[in-house]
Structure formats: C-alpha cells, structure tokens
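$ ./design --mode recover --in tokens.txt
reading tokens...
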C-alpha cells in the first residue's frame, strides 16, 4: 500500500486545522497497515513541468491529475481524499 502526500505526515502549525495527511497516515497505522509514504513535492495547480516528482507522476498516471493525499492499495485500488482513506482504514483493519 502506498500513501501519496505532499510533504510528509507531520503536524501542521496552522491553528484550527489538523494535518489531513497525518490523519490518513495515523488511521492506516492504527488499523495495522504499513503504508509506504511517497512524498510528492510541488504544487498540483502549477504546470506539470514544475511537478515532476515521482509521486506526482505516479498519481497523475493513476488518476489523471496531480493532486495528492491518495492511497493506492496493493490491488491497484485508489482511495481518494484523506477522509475516505480514514474511513477505509477503519472498515478494513489489517
């Protein structure tokens, strides 16, 4: 299983907003999964020439866009959005 994130799974200092990437990662870990975290640096709205990291390229190949916070299961299923990843993790413990 891979978890594509923009910068990492750390907390964010922004008040009133939990790190959604950290929520997805923690939910997967708590459910007993060991996701491979793929850091996908860059900003998705920028042209692709500025977003050529491995993670952004893989996400675009899988989904057609460069936005991250996606999980890819071992069978190739893509789970889009942190909330959906959290819900999936809760429903599918390892």
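writing sequence...
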């Amino acid at each position: 299983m891979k978890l594509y994130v923009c910068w990492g799974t750390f907390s964010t200092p922004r008040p009133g907003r939990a790190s959604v990437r950290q929520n997805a990662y923690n939910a997967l870990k708590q459910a007993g999964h060991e996701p491979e975290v793929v850091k996908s640096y860059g900003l998705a709205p920028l042209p692709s020439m500025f977003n050529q990291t491995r993670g952004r390229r893989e996400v675009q190949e899988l989904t057609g866009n460069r936005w991250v916070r996606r999980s890819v299961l071992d069978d190739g299923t893509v789970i889009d959005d942190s909330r959906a990843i959290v819900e999936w993790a809760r429903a599918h413990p390892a």
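exit 0
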